[in-house]
């Protein structure tokens, strides 16, 4: 009998989906809704526009929201907090990738709504904004996240065993802001970005082994392009991937990598062109980032690193001490870290600098360092590495420390959630 059968990937996936659903149900029961905020509404409204209007103008779609408070705080219908173009329309500075991902789930939710209505049921809410449709999108995003986290679990389990992988996944998910943005409020881009980075880690590992290099390079290009459309700042991982890509092709004949490499590059460039076209439609200028067009930028020479790491309201290490434990694993056992993992680690470190240099390093109204939670996969690997390489006493200490760190983060999450009602 396999005593670790419940740590098989399929059961891990089932557990992840179940816990996500429980978290979402708890959110619905406590607040009465699962949809709120500002950024998330822009993402969803663009998906709404793509599906119902077949365009990328979110003005009328955003106006139909059941939760206009972020844009109309006075409640007088002026919408004076909403950004405006010269023509009066509302531009979206946000990348379009998450909205594209949401479209098929919104389509499924709308179909379900129509079936309920055809059966005589009453479904309140504007088309696309009913509880059925919102829940369909939220659950769809949660399932995609669970796929990404399960892939990460399989990668880590292959390297360090299932118990180590379970500890790593527990720490990276529940011990960081990732849990909030995957289970309680999945309408943001962080969970989808995490899933793409997890798939990218899996693809990177494949490049370090013998096999169909053409297909792997094409897949790598697709993942990087998708990542750019969902969270553009995360694409700096491509810089750290260059040594692995070069090593994968320089000793092999062109026939086994050139076509796939060209397809991968083409897919990446197509993603960039798509985002450029979208930003032009919103602001009338060609720009890689809608944030820049919206007046936001970076202070490259004055990054607020200490704020990002230690601020009492958002600090990464304050809200997620499990990151410290994972870091110790990398430092103590650096020689045992697989080569394909280092690009993810390099990107995770680079993201601290990018967040610190951004014009809003506080990351808005968020739980902890939300913009770094995309990179939580490196926490899973660091914890699993430390668990596998430590002696029994060290393992026990690590397990206890990880559980305490997770409980502390969940405690802070509870305090944050109690003060978040809109």
In brief:
The protein has 422 residues and is mainly α.
Keywords:
single chain; 422 residues; mainly alpha
For the sheet with most strands, the description reads:
none
Helix content: 55-70%
> By helix and strand content, what is the structural category?
mainly alpha
N-to-C series of helices and strands: HHHHHHHHHHHHHHHHHH
Relative strand content: under 5%
What is the general shape? globular
- Round the Cα radius of gyration to an integer and report it: 22 Å
- The average pLDDT is 95
Low-confidence stretches: none
Count the beta strands.
0
Tally of contiguous helical segments: 18
Distance between the termini: 49 Å
List the helices and strands and how they pair.
Blueprint: H1 9-31, H2 39-53, H3 59-63, H4 97-118, H5 131-160, H6 162-174, H7 178-184, H8 190-207, H9 213-230, H10 237-250, H11 258-283, H12 290-293, H13 305-310, H14 316-319, H15 322-332, H16 342-357, H17 377-389, H18 392-418
Helix pairs in contact: 1-5, 2-4, 4-5, 5-6, 5-8, 5-17, 6-17, 6-18, 8-9, 9-11, 10-16, 15-17, 17-18
Structure description:
With 422 residues, the protein is mainly alpha-helical. The protein is built from 18 helices and no strands. It has helices at 9-31, 39-53, 59-63, 97-118, 131-160, 162-174, 178-184, 190-207, 213-230, 237-250, 258-283, 290-293, 305-310, 316-319, 322-332, 342-357, 377-389, 392-418. The protein is globular. The model has no long low-confidence stretch (mean pLDDT 95).
């Amino acid at each position: 009998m396999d005593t670790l059968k419940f740590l098989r990937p399929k059961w891990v996936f089932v557990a992840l989906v179940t816990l996500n659903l429980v978290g979402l149900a708890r959110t619905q029961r406590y607040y009465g809704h699962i949809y709120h905020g500002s950024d998330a509404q822009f993402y969803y409204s663009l998906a709404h526009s793509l599906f119902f209007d077949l365009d990328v103008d979110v003005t009328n779609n955003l106006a139909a929201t059941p939760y206009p408070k972020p844009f109309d705080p006075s409640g007088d219908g002026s919408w004076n907090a909403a950004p405006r173009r010269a023509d009066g329309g509302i531009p979206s500075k946000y990348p379009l990738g998450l909205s594209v991902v949401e479209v098929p789930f919104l389509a499924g939710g709308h179909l379900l709504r129509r079936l309920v209505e055809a059966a005589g049921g009453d479904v309140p809410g504007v088309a696309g904004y009913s509880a059925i449709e919102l829940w369909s999108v939220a659950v769809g995003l949660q399932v995609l996240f669970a796929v990404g986290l399960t892939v990460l679990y399989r990668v880590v389990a292959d390297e360090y065993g299932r118990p180590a992988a379970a500890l790593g996944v527990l720490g990276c998910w529940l011990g960081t802001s990732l849990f909030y943005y995957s289970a309680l409020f999945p309408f943001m881009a962080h969970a989808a970005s995490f899933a793409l980075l997890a798939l990218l880690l899996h693809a990177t590992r494949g490049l370090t082994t013998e096999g169909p290099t053409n297909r792997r390079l094409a897949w790598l290009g697709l993942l990087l392009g998708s990542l750019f459309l969902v969270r553009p700042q995360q694409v700096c991982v491509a810089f750290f991937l260059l040594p692995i890509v070069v090593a994968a092709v320089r000793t092999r004949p062109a026939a086994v990598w050139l076509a796939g490499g060209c397809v991968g590059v083409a897919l990446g460039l197509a993603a960039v062109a798509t985002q450029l076209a979208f930003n032009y439609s919103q602001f009338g200028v060609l720009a890689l980032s809608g944030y820049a067009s919206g007046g936001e930028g970076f202070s490259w020479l004055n990054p607020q690193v200490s704020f990002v790491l230690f601020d009492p309201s958002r600090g990464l290490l304050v809200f997620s001490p499990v990151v410290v434990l994972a870091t110790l694993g990398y430092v103590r056992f650096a020689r045992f870290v697989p080569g394909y993992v280092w690009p993810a680690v390099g990107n995770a470190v680079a993201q601290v600098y990018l967040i610190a240099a951004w014009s809003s390093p506080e990351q808005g109204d968020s739980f902890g360092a939300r913009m770094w939670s995309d990179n939580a996969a490196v926490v899973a690997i660091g914890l699993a590495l430390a668990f596998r390489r430590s002696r029994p006493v060290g393992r026990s200490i690590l397990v206890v420390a990880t559980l305490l760190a997770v409980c502390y983060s969940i405690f802070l999450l509870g305090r944050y959630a109690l003060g978040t009602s809109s």
